[in-house]
Specification:
Wheat Germ Agglutinin (Isolectin 2), domain 1; 170 residues; alpha+beta; elongated; 60s Ribosomal Protein L30, Chain: A
């Protein structure tokens, strides 16, 4: 089963690698730990590092950046906070150190098949999942660059309401 998911994730990702395997395995285990039978909404994931992992999570957990249920909070850690907002259950999986000297293929196989406690540690989640309701925020046109920007990302600079990019340039 996990090898089939890894293959499917590789088709989306464009290649096969240990990073993709990490995302596949983490999401696979999260479904099991949280006792989830149907992937997708209202599941949510906050990943703590940007890498190949996210494509594996998207395929297995059913959350995507596009649907707003996969979020990146850059912390530089190979860690994933998984939530089932309907049940309130959550788990954080963080990658452990793995055996050295393995080939790329051997490392991938280790990640996919080794006992869970050799691949990931489990901790309580580090972040609260946002509510499962989408709120469309009003937008304004930035007077400096002329681009439309959602209100939560606007700032007041010199008495003008400007977008983050223009605020950061000032």
């Amino acid at each position: 089963m996990i090898h089939e998911l890894y293959k499917k994730a590789g088709e989306l990702h464009g290649h096969y690698c240990p990073g993709l395997a990490i995302g596949v395995r983490a999401a696979f285990e999260a479904l099991r730990i949280l006792e989830i039978e149907k992937k997708g909404f209202p599941l949510y994931c906050i990943a703590e590092n940007r890498a190949c992992y996210q494509d594996g999570i998207q395929v297995v957990f059913g959350t995507t950046l596009g649907d707003g249920n996969l979020e990146l909070r850059q912390r530089g850690k190979t860690a994933f906070n998984f939530y089932d907002r309907s049940s309130g259950k959550s788990v954080r999986l963080i990658a452990k150190s793995w055996p050295e000297g393995l080939s790329r293929e051997e490392l991938t196989e280790f990640i996919l098949t080794a006992p869970l406690d050799e691949v990931f540690g489990q901790t309580p989640v580090h972040f609260e999942a946002p509510p499962d309701t989408f709120v469309r925020r009003p937008s304004r046109v930035c007077p400096r660059c002329g681009e439309s920007c959602s209100e939560p990302y606007l700032r007041i600079m010199d008495g003008e309401i400007v977008c983050l990019d223009c605020a950061e340039k000032a």
